[in-house]
Amino acid sequence: MMITMYGFGKVTPQVVGITRDLRVLWALEECELPHQVNGLDDFAGELHSADYLAINPFGKVPAIDHDGVIIFESGAIVIYLAEQSGRLLPTSESERAKALQWTFAALDTVEPPMTQIAVIDLFEADAEWAKLRRPALVEMAKNYLAVLEDVLISKRYLLGDQFTYPDILMVAALSQIQHTNLLDEFPNVTSYLTRCHDRPAWHKCLDAYNRRLAA
C-alpha cells in the first residue's frame, strides 16, 4: 500500500533544508517505498487542524499513514520504514543493537545542542539571552563532534562500511549546524557528511522537497 507522509508544504524560509520531514523522505527513497506527500501549510495553521491532530496530537511533522498504521516522530518512522523494507538494516543482532544505540545518540545527545544553535542563529541572534547561551552550546557541540571525529577515523559510516538508518538521523542532526564553521575542525565528520549527501536517494528526496516548498 502507498505510504502517505505528512510534511511541510509551506514553512519559514530559514528552516528549509533542516526540517524533520526531510529525514523521513530520505529514508523513503533509500528504502524505495511507494509514497505520496501531503504538504501542510504551517502558516495557515494546518498542523493544528482537527484532522491533523487526529494523526499527530502534538501538531508536529512528520507523520506517516501506512495502510492505517499511523506513526509520528521522525526516528520512529525511519526505523519503521527500514524494518518494513528490509533495507538500511544491519544483519546481526549485535549490530542492530548498535543501530539503536546510534539512533538515540543522534536524537537525544547530538541533535539537541545543534538544534538550539540553529534556533539562536536563525531566529534569536540579537537576543541577549541567546548571546549568553550560545557559547555553552558551541562547547557542547564541539565535544560531541570530537567523539564522532574519533569514531569515524576508520569507518565510512556509523556501523562501518554499510549505510544504515542511524546515519540518516545523525546526518540530519549535524545538518543543523552546516550554516556555521563548527565542522571545520572535524575533517572526518565533514567527509562523512559529504559521503552521505552524495547518495542518489538524498539528491532525489532533496530535489522533490525543494520543489514542493517552492511551489
From TrEMBL:
EC assignment: 2.5.1.18
TM helices/strands, residue ranges: none
Enzyme kind, highest EC tier: transferase
Top-level taxon of the source organism: Bacteria
All residue ranges annotated as the GST N-terminal domain in the record: 23-89
Signal peptide range: none
The entry's keywords: Transferase
Domain GST C-terminal stretches: 92-215
GO molecular function, one term: glutathione transferase activity
Classification via SUPFAM superfamilies: GST C-terminal domain-like, Thioredoxin-like
Name recorded for this polypeptide: Glutathione S-transferase
